[in-house]
Amino acid sequence: MGRGETILARGLALDVAGGSGLLLRGPNGSGKSTLLLTLAGLLAPVEGTVTIEGHDPDDGPALHYCGHRNAVRARITVRQTLDFWAALNGHTGLGADAALERVGLGKTAKLDAGYLSAGQQRRLVLARLLVSRRPLWFLDEPSAALDADGRVLLAELLSAHLAEGGLAVIATHDDIAVSALTTLQLGAAP
Amino acid sequence: MTGFLSVIRRDLRLAFAGGGDVLTLLLFFIIVGAIVPFAVGPDQELLSRIAPGVVWIAAFLSMLLGLDRLFRPDLEDGTLALYRLADLPLSAVIAAKVIVQWLTSALPLIVASPFLAVILTMDLDTFWRTVLSLLLGTPALAAFGAFGAAVTVAIRRGGLLAPILIAPLCVPILIFGIGVIAPLGGPGQGTAAMLFLAALSLMALALTPFAAALAIAWGRSRAPP
């Protein structure tokens, strides 16, 4: 696994079962994000494969990926942003209003998404996970910029997702109060 | 289908809510046409003879200049990664973007072309032919442009690379576009050029979304994000 000419990890083999989560930990630059991107299929592995078992490829992509960047654009309202994501990924989960209410953005629905603070944008990204139901969540530092309530919310959403048999891989430096999480420690970059 | 329409709706909203981009390209189009009389002198006969070519070059340049906003903002804010994992195929997203690109960078130029017709003293018959050839040819320009933008999106600061890459591909569009306005050779040549131009546009619209999707998926999966 690596980027460009840089190899970040060799001989990595991991297996995550449904209903459980994996925390990726490691110092900055150790390859947490790269591993997430590779697992999500957004970055080609240098060698080896990523297999998702028990998912029919005809059902479309099985995973949600949330990177550092929130994909939130100014000049579009919060509600329109969420509707756009739901239309793109399919309305298979909560309704847009219910999802906004769940992540605590119910009052900002008509606001220009560009006015949201970093933490609120992060909450909006969490709402994206709710409007389209997908079994795999790949989250890159989901708790960054979130306040204490936001972290509780994140833990609740993750617990509910895992309880439904979902799977999550999370790269983070923070503690996430969810049971059924195992930790993979990545070493410093070679 | 709702996903396809929502991409169109979102990009149209972004293009017009800001207002700046569309207007800038429109002004660029008019300015390029308007400085030609100063460069070639006030010879009315000469001006009206080269007017169709000037209008086409102005449209060509302003459409190529607008290419960078096609995928780069989406790359920078992470929406492109989202598109790659969407239920909607990436090629459909790109087809939607080509449509928006045409609506925001070609249609305004066609609407504004009467200004240039007056500045360049075009006669009415030539003007209508010019509008027709622009209508038929600009979809191909938008489609080839999307392909160029997709190939260069992986390159940082690749802003002007797409126009340079795409310009040679667009020469046939220019040739047939001018052929519709000022048919060379015998009768029937204008119609033939028109049919060729329409065929080029249809082919480009049908094929480039797939090529562009491949370019993005391949390029992004190997480049640092």
From TrEMBL, chain A:
Q: Does the keyword Hydrolase apply?
A: no
InterPro entries from the UniProt entry = AAA+_ATPase (IPR003593), ABC_transporter-like_ATP-bd (IPR003439), ABC_transporter-like_CS (IPR017871), ABC_transptr_haem_export_CcmA (IPR005895), P-loop_NTPase (IPR027417)
Q: Which Pfam family, an example, fits this chain?
A: ABC_tran
Q: Name one GO molecular function term.
A: transmembrane transporter activity
Q: Which UniProt keywords apply?
A: ATP-binding, Cytochrome c-type biogenesis, Membrane, Nucleotide-binding, Translocase, Transport
Give the source's domain of life in one word: Bacteria
Coiled coil where? Answer: none
The UniProt entry's GO biological process terms, in alphabetical order, are: cytochrome complex assembly
> Residue ranges of the ABC transporter domain?
1-189
Q: PANTHER family of this UniProt entry?
A: ABC TRANSPORTER I FAMILY MEMBER 1 (PTHR43499)
Give the family this protein belongs to, as stated in its UniProt record.
Belongs to the ABC transporter superfamily.
Can you name this protein?
Heme ABC exporter ATP-binding protein CcmA
Q: Which organism's genome codes for this protein?
A: Devosia aurantiaca
Identify the taxonomic lineage of the organism of origin: Bacteria, Pseudomonadati, Pseudomonadota, Alphaproteobacteria, Hyphomicrobiales
TrEMBL record, chain B:
Which residues fall in a coiled-coil region? Answer: none
GO BP annotations of the record are: cytochrome c biosynthetic process; cytochrome complex assembly
- Tell me which domain of life the UniProt entry assigns to the organism this sequence originates from: Bacteria
Q: What keywords sit in the KW lines?
A: Cell inner membrane, Cell membrane, Cytochrome c-type biogenesis, Membrane, Transmembrane, Transmembrane helix, Transport
Indicate where this protein resides in the cell.
Answer: Cell inner membrane
**Record Pfam families:** CcmB
TM ranges: 12-40, 46-67, 88-111, 131-153, 160-182, 194-218
**Bilayer topology:** Multi-pass membrane protein
What InterPro entries does the record point to?
A: Cyt_c_biogenesis_CcmB, Cyt_c_CcmB_bac
Query: Could you give one GO CC term from the UniProt record?
Result: plasma membrane
Q: Which molecular-function annotations from GO does this UniProt entry contain?
A: heme transmembrane transporter activity
Family designation: Belongs to the CcmB/CycW/HelB family.
Q: What does this protein do?
A: Required for the export of heme to the periplasm for the biogenesis of c-type cytochromes.
Know the name of this protein?
Heme exporter protein B
Which species is this record about? Devosia aurantiaca
Gene designation: ccmB
